[in-house]
């Protein structure tokens, strides 16, 4: 998958899908099925796959810690059986003088979880919880940004909120970033019963992740301030 997005004129995106094999993932920390693409004839897969494997381990480590804190490890293991990952490589070119410096509009991710990596060129900004300021992320070769997507918020009954973020291209250097996004396939995601009580009434109906993404691309989904709430909120 490769191409330019009309909404983000100065970006070019490549995607690489990797698949966790459900049965093996029980005995191995991470396992993969086949890769689905080559990049413009170049076999891009080895390095990208090695990178993905590493980041998938990080994703699962973080999610196991999070689910342990909430006492929902078994529920997470069930989701893991049907998790697939998308590695996205994004190139942001330097905008020309008559273009805006916006690289990606403010958004929350439609994934379950996202892990972002950028070595040295700034641009990613994260909105503060009060919604009044943007924090500029200082990139480093040894750090990763782990962010919840909309689907994680629904799964945790609103406990873990996705952060609104954007990319602004300043300066004269082009920027490459890598994002690994997790998606839950072929399973209705339900709030674990451990996360529902009198103080925390059920906020989301069971829903399918891919159906949610489909909804997001409808007119109603695009117009909604919080599409996940519009789609399956109670
Ligand atoms: O390039 C970045 O740092 C952020 C990318 C991003 O937010 C996305 O792909 O959803
Ligand atoms: Fe994002």
UniProtKB/TrEMBL annotation:
Family the entry assigns: Belongs to the iron/ascorbate-dependent oxidoreductase family.
Keyword Metal-binding appears in the UniProt entry: yes
Listed name of the protein: Fe2OG dioxygenase domain-containing protein
Xref: InterPro entries: IPNS-like_FE2OG_OXY, IPNS-like_sf, Iron_ascorbate_oxido_reductase, Oxoglu/Fe-dep_dioxygenase_dom
Keyword Zinc in annotation: no
Domain Fe2OG dioxygenase: 82-186
Cited Pfam families: 2OG-FeII_Oxy
Keywords, sorted A to Z: Iron, Metal-binding, Oxidoreductase
